Amino acid sequence: MRVIGIIAEYNPFHNGHEYLIKEARKRVGDPRAVVMSIMSGPFTQRGLPAMAPAHIRAKQALVCGCDVVIELPFEYACAPASEFAYGAVKSLMDTGVVTDIAWGIEDTSPDIVEALSDPSLYEREAYKDALRKALASGDSFPLANSKAVAAVAGSVDPELLQEALRSPNTILAIEYMKAIRMLGAKFKVHMIPRQGQGYSDDDPETDQQFCSASAIRKAVMSSDGTVSGIASAVCGRMPDNAASVMLSALSRGEFRPADLNEYALRAVTFPRGDLHEIRFMNDGLDGYISNILDDLRTGDTTFDALSARLATKHFTMARIYRALTMMLLGVRGDMVRKDPCYIRVLGFGHEGRYCLKIMGKCSRLPIIHNFSDFLENGNLKDAADLSLRAYDLAGIIMGMPPGSARDIPPVIV
């Protein structure tokens, strides 16, 4: 049995995701290959709550070609690219059943991904020196890293290199390959050129057939908020089956698209103490955030105002949002384990059910179907607590009753 792992956020599920699933099966040469997606839960890699609840996004994937959806635990999902990639690759390895792995890339970057995923590149003194100098000059880490990589990647075309390192998709692809090499994973890798817009192209009108997730979120947030308004924003920009899942849930009042103004208000009014132990609050970010949040208490507390005030060349906005989320959840750096300690099933279809039976015999980690399963394993208490708090916070921001997210069983399609 061939099982293809796909790492995703599905925030929200769009036509490009459906294309990747279909194309991955073609690359494997088996139309019945099982597709197992590992998906971010309530919060995304950028640090913000997902647009829709995890069970809705999992169901979208299942009705559009996935067979199994498992969750990337919060501490890896809401983390820098290297930790996001490591947690996802390690989890897929630990299922004991994944044979292949596929991801989307910009069509100019396969050779660059191969070249820049060599771990020894980042151990060179020339790289470390260039990185230190760039950071000392005030560059953010992504910019400093790109300068340092350019200093040692002599065989790569400089123009293509700079273009690749500006693409979050390519950066993640490099981290996936680094994690695969570091962990010694035996996956067969399939790098599939993306269709349509780039990751960060947030203009919904640029390419409606292969609209980016950023563009769809922008279209939804620009709508009037009614179900019909959101329908106009997503129809044509995501598969019909995926749109139907989301719109049906909205019609039933199960959730509302994540209200980022609510997220900002909670951040501004959060009772803060000393933030230096909070995850991602190092390098002076704790004092910077604390001072600005204090100033905003008597001013505009919308998400746009918060973002505008926090923007700085020293830290990326993703780093800032991740730090804010860790603050709201009280996550200290010492609370995060190096390796994932469980596999949580978010949903499955007919072929996925058979795959899960085999995984039950092969998995190196306990398999969680319901939150109650956490309680049966004392070693998972801390991980369960963190996951529950993340789900509760995101649920409130999505207009769900407090605690309701923990009672939702895996989706069965």
Task: State the main characteristics.
single chain, 413 residues, alpha/beta, 3 domains, eight-stranded mixed sheet, 19 helices
Mean pLDDT: 90
| Biggest sheet record | 8 strands, mixed
Distance between the termini: 21 Å
Give the helix tally.
Answer: 19
The tally of beta strands, per DSSP, is: 8
Q: Which geometry do the CA atoms define?
A: globular
- Which segments are poorly predicted (pLDDT under 50) over 5 or more consecutive residues? none
Percent range for β-strand residues: 5-15%
C-alpha Rg, in Å? 21 Å
Integer tally of domains: 3
Give, in order, the helices and strands: EHEHEHHEHHHHHEHHHHHHHEHEHHE
Secondary structural class: alpha/beta
Helix-residue proportion: 40-55%
Describe this protein's structure:
β1 (3-8), α1 (15-28) and β2 form a beta-alpha-beta unit. This protein is of the alpha/beta class and 413 residues long. The radius of gyration is 21 Å and the shape is globular. The model has no long low-confidence stretch (mean pLDDT 90). 49% of the residues lie in helices and 10% in strands. Strands 1, 2, 3, 4, 5, 6, 7 and 8 form an eight-stranded mixed beta sheet that branches. The longest helix is centred in the last third of the chain and has 17 residues, at 381-397. The protein contains 19 helices and eight strands. It folds into three domains: 3-108 and 191-257 and 336-412, no CATH class; 110-166, no CATH class; 260-335, no CATH class.
